[in-house]
Amino acid sequence: MPSKDTRDHIIQTGAELIGQKGFGATGINAVLTAAGVPKGSFYHYFSSKNDFGLAVIDSFAREYDAKLERILTDPTRSCVDRLYAYFDTGFESITSCEYTSGCLIGNLGQELSGQNETFRTRLNNVFSGWEKRFERCIAQGQEAGEIDRTVVPSDVASFLLSGWEGAILRAKVLKSTEPMERFVRVFFSQCLGIH
Questions:
Q1: Interhelix angle for 117-143 vs 49-72, to 10°?
Q2: For the whole model, what pTM was predicted?
Q3: How many CB atoms lie within 10 A of CB 177?
Q4: d(CA 117, CA 36)
Q5: pLDDT score recorded for residue 1
Q6: Rg for the chain (alpha carbons), in Å?
Q7: Which of 20, 25, 26, 15 lies closest to 55, judged by CA?
Q8: CA–CA separation, 11 vs 1, rounded Å?
């Protein structure tokens, strides 16, 4: 396996395990066993478990950002439909893992932001980037006359991110999409003025 492929394989395998067990409970040996690579390979690519964790965050963030780009800038859909499409991907994701994983960045934020400043900063940067994408989509929806012009796009984007992450957490606890469904209903009717 070429060098970059091996590194990416270790990161992808680790991301799946971290999504299931958390960062603290995921040992390097478990990642290497699941990835089928020797221990020396890990230290060839990563200087420490924290270095590996940051690489997992960066990799997930790049992939998710590309997904957000595709969904939130899709010229074939209205801005409101783009937001619905975004929420639909969340429903698909939470049900396909049977309510076990949720959002990797949200999970890591809950687990690590109070323990490690480097992780906290990196996770906050990821969330801020997502928030900016939501803000742009909402502002475009206002310009197109689809969304109430009196709402403040940055405030609504921040609420969307925080509320949706909370709804995902509650969905995991309840093993039901009901909290996510409720959030979506309230978000569109109360925040965007769409009934």
A1: 0
A2: 0.91
A3: 18
A4: 31
A5: 52
A6: 18
A7: 15
A8: 14
What b/e string do you get for 31-50 counting C-beta neighbours within 10 Å, with b at 16 or more? bbeebebeeebbeebbeebe
Tokens describing residue 192: 């965007």
Long-range pairs for 36-41 at CB < 8 Å and ≥24 separation? 37/6, 37/9, 37/10, 41/6, 41/10
- Structure tokens, 157: 């984007």
Question: What 8-state DSSP symbol labels residue 103?
Answer: -
Q: Per the structure block, which two tokens stand in for 15?
A: 């991301």
Distances (CA, A) of 6 to 36, 57, 155: 10, 17, 41
pLDDT 10s digits, 145-177 = 999 999 999 999 999 999 999 999 999 999 999
Domains of the chain: 1-46 (1.10.10.60), 56-191 (1.10.357.10)
User: Which pLDDT score is estimated for 100?
Assistant: 84
Supply the pLDDT for residue 2.
57
> How many Å from the N-terminal Cα to the C-terminal Cα in the chain?
53
> Which residue carries 């925040």 as its tokens?
191
Q: Among residues 187, 181, 188, 86, which one has the least CA distance to residue 146?
A: 188
